[in-house]
Fold each of these.
Amino acid sequence: PLRRQRQMCIRDRPDVVFLCEVLGDMASFRLLRGWLRGHGYAARFLPGRGEGRRDGIVAAVRRQSARLSAWCQVAERTLGVAVRHRGEADVRRYVMIHGLSGSADCERQFCTQLNRAKNWAGDGGVVLGDLNHVVCRLWRSLPRTLSASDLTRALRLYEARIRAVYGGGLVYEARRPYEARIRIRGSYGHVYEARKGGDAAPLLRGSY
């Protein structure tokens, strides 16, 4: 599935692309950088920390329509790039935050991520993120039972994208409303499920 995921990220030929939760060190990144270069993108990498080098961030800029002027680590798990788009005199700044969460110390560091990203982006910059935070904690604490109609709607919204990424078929099952689920059979035999508490639950967020 990795090959399809790579293709999906540049399918629409965006000027600027960010990838979060990238696993690997600089040696691994060189392979990805070469692949991106072959598709017309210049790339920079902020490696993750700790065992396995998880949670890295990659920024890629399309060379045909923009130029990567500068980049830096703005904060922990926060990567900033300065880009000059073709036909524009000003440099635009983009910042990607992969939010820290889970403990009181992480919450303080998350505030640092936000403040440094805001300051580095400046006026007219763009701050993006996989923030790992919600506006209200009740969004994650209140129970939510996924009904058959919830999953049918999610299937309609995401079917084409799921097929493109996983290369497999989708099977809808609903023996009882509270057991309704979508099973995704990947081209390599992997099975992913979208149901209450399942690993693929984020697939459903766009349906609410």
Amino acid sequence: IAPAEDGMQSGSYLNPGGVFTSKVQKWGPFFSLAFRSSSCQHPLLASAIARIAKESSTHEAFMAEKGAVQQLLAMALSDSLIVVKQACSALGSLASATPAVAQRLVDSEQAMMGSLLKSTQPAAQVSALRLVASLALTSASISDALLTDAIYEDLLGRCDTSTEPPVQRYALLALGNIAFHRKPRLRLQADKRLVPILLKLSRGTVSYT
């Protein structure tokens, strides 16, 4: 595939027939098939979608595909841990680069994240925590919106009492990312429970890298 010539839009490529085609047109047929309700629950396809979502050049095509975000949300609640992990990864990639996705997740999809956080499977909890951590860095308003009483208490509780080191690690990462912005940081500073928990973690043997 040849790159677009000077003066052409960066979202175009030269197909084998010598015709410039937009990235949306390029990925459209694949996404139409991939985001069928039955197809996107397949672990291999979920992995492919997550890898594609890491490429910034595909984000426009993701957003152009009707129902893509909704299907990713459904995938995040799958019974398959692989599908859950890959769906959360794709959502994190899209939210980090696309404000509309991040805003949607904090405005209307917090119930989904709450369901993931309440999972009895540590791997699903980690996937949800990584998504929260990614969202927290997108903007100050998103970070503030994430810090609901329910999510804060959940994150704090996991830092304090979880017996799963990866869950503790990503709960702490999510809190740290939320605290990156001033308004939520002031709220965290006002909670007298937080410092003792952080001191306890600092004396532990868990690596937070």
